[in-house]
Amino acid sequence: MSKLQIVIVSYNVRHFLHQALSAIQAAARDMDTEIWVVDNDSKDASAEMVDELWPDVKLIANQENTGFAVANNQAIRQSSSEYVLLLNPDTVVEEDSLQASVQYMDKHPKCGALGIRMIDGSGAYLPESKRGLPTPWVALCKTLKLHRIFPRWRAVNGYYLGYLDEYSTSEVDVLSGAYMMMRRSVLDEVGLLDEDYFMYGEDVDLSYRIQQAGHQVVYFAGSSIIHYKGESTKKGSLDYLKTFYKAMILFSEKHYSPAQARIYSLLIHAAIVLHAVASFLKRSLLRYLVVITDAAMIYGGMWLMSLLWQKYRYGSTDFFTDSVNTLNLPLYTLVWILSIWLGTGYDKHIRLGRLLRSLGIGGLILMAIYGMLPMLMRNSRMLVVLGFLSTVSLVIVSRLAYTRWRYGRWGLSAKSQSNIAIIGAKQEALRVRALLSDLGKDGGRLITVDAADASGAEADGNLRDLLDLVGQHDVDELIFCAQDLEASTITGWMTRLGPSYSYKIVAPESTSIIGSPSRNSPGELYTLELSLAIDDAAHRRSKWIFDKISSIALLVLFPVGLLYSMVNRRSQRSGGASTGADGSNHSVTYLKHSMQVLLGQRTWVGYHQGTEATAGLPDLKPGIYTPRAMVDDSSVRLYRINLAYARDYEWSKDLGVLLRRL
After folding, report:
1. In the chain, where are the structural domains located?
2. Distance between CA 181 and CA 9 in Å, rounded?
3. Which residue intervals of 108-150 are DSSP H helices?
4. Which alpha helices (H) appear in 256-328, and where do they start and end?
5. Partner of 526 at 20 to 30 A CA spacing, among 52, 108, 299, 313?
6. Helices (H), 10-45
């Protein structure tokens, strides 16, 4: 019988799982442990990676996603260790985390379950490391966000227990399933995870049952782990919220009185509605506020230019008709807004050349539109020219001001390339530097920090001087080499430097660099395998534009196609060939597909369909056609075709497919 069984349930997080297992190996090196990975039918070759790289890990490869509780129970039932640890795949344990946790439980026999201090990918403490029971009052305070307003007030912070010091070991009510160590004897007494929960709530339910059986549930602050928080579940979405709260309702119905359960259910549904409304308003404001501001600014600039031009040219500000303000200027503003959008003006990283080129094209389009306007609306070509000058000036000045306010620097956008510090020994640091170069992430300043005490000849400094080095070199992002640094050293520096920087970790021999910008964001991943052009906003936009323009062109040409099919049928009829209904059917299908693409229901070229064929790839609308004609139905073959399409995407590829298929 082993001392400790570690159970990891994995679903489509291969790169994070690789890092987690590397950290576990270092932490469990001198311990009597057995490591289990239960793969819930991942489509990203997670199971194959475990089988190849960690043959000593006990692997259960499910053929369907059984959920968190069922998967954990599968592994727990097949072992008889003294302790069981439930661990998320998107975690990094320190070298002493496992040993310290086991030693604490050995010394405290009343402790039935133990959690640990967790930090996110930015080094910030995760409050869900320790929690209270979700009673109706606690749920109401959390729904109203009172715990954020009064973080230390016990009466309103019963969920995250903010009044308890994060660095003090304390008895609590609920632990996180991301790291939950339990005695086997306690599990035999209270039962395993409740399989009525598919995802979320299992840890709450199990913690409650352990406590009700008379055992202590302890938050252990003697060590820390990194938890990227939600990479495998994509927290923050409305679907996540519904799933989580559904689990909470199940908990209330199971453990509370009917009256309490009804109150709890009402609070939960109110929280879902409030969250949905708040999320919609937030997305709408963020998405459209800058556009509305630009439109008002551009219209105002052209209106002022029209007044100045009328005063200069005609000696009066009332020379133009009212249609200038009600028709011309709104039309010109719309064209300018579309030009800014096409020129990356609403992307995070603005490209000045593309923006100016698009504004120039917008000016030419306006001159063409001006020539087609009725004579009554052709007030002055100079108004278009002056509008172009004012729009370009205002757009550039507004972007400079925003960047100065938002990022503290003068420029058109956030830095497109970060200044990166690689912390590791010479050989590993050079490997990571080469990896960044292959990924196209070496555009900023790149420095190397020797992980040893003494600075190497090839390094810019040593680890002791890291605090000075990040300031001296204006570092934005730090990449720690796990091969040369202990996890406790990494978490210590993340905590010390704070959330002002971006942190990533690269596991030994891995081609993936993993991190997370905040506790509310899913993990970030740099990897050669997933550098996909289709993820780029400019490529997404060009695909959208191609779909719309080509659909309009095909709809305009529809009568020509219909006439051709009629002539073709007539020639077939005169030649004695069977007429059939193929021509008319093709015409109807042609029209239907063009309308579907124009309305945004489908795209001309999309992935070959199938769960395994699209696993892990960015979402696309269903395609009328696929990148290649169906060669065979092998999932691996189709996935490779889809991956190549996503990785190397250009709108010209869609054009080639469309022309061939038509």
Report:
1. 4-233, 290-407, 420-529, 534-661
2. 15
3. 136-143, 146-149
4. 258-314, 323
5. 52
6. 14-27
For 385, half-sphere exposure in the C-beta direction (CA atoms, 13 angstrom radius) is: 5
Q: Where are the beta strands (DSSP E) in 275-329?
A: none
User: pLDDT > 90: what percent of the chain?
Assistant: 31
Q: How far apart are CA 477 and CA 430, in angstroms?
A: 17
Asked if 109 and 32 touch (Cβ cutoff 8 Å), the reply is: no
Predicted pLDDT at 25 = 92
d(CA 384, CA 474): 43
CATH code 3.90.550.10 for 4-233: yes
pLDDT(233) > 50: no
* CA 83 centroid distance within chain: 34
Q: What is the pLDDT of residues 334-363, one digit of tens each?
A: 999 988 887 777 776 666 777 788 888 888
Hunting for tokens 């640091």 — which residue is that? Answer: 429
Q: Are 275 and 290 in contact (CB under 8 A)?
A: no
Q: Cα–Cα distances in Å, from 77 out to 59, 74, 80, 192? A: 14, 6, 8, 9
Lowest mean pLDDT among 140-149, 192-201, 226-235, 530-539: 226-235
Instruction: Give Cβ neighbours of residue 385 (< 8 Å, ≥ 6 apart).
Output: 363
Which pair of structure tokens corresponds to residue 20? 């987690």
Closest CA to 439 of 510, 497, 356: 510
For residue 225, give the amino acid letter.
I
Block residue for tokens 């892990």: 616
Q: How far is CA 500 from the centre of its chain?
A: 20
User: Rounded to a whole number, what is the distance in angstroms from the first to the last CA of the chain?
Assistant: 66
**Cβ-proximal residues to 200 (8 Å cutoff; 6+ apart), any chain:** 68, 243, 244, 247
CATH hierarchy code of domain 420-529: 3.40.50
Name residue, tokens 């070759």.
Answer: 45
**Strand (E) positions, 71-178?**
83-87, 91-93, 111-119, 170-171
Token digits for 27?
């932490």
Can you read off the two tokens belonging to residue 97?
Answer: 């985390």
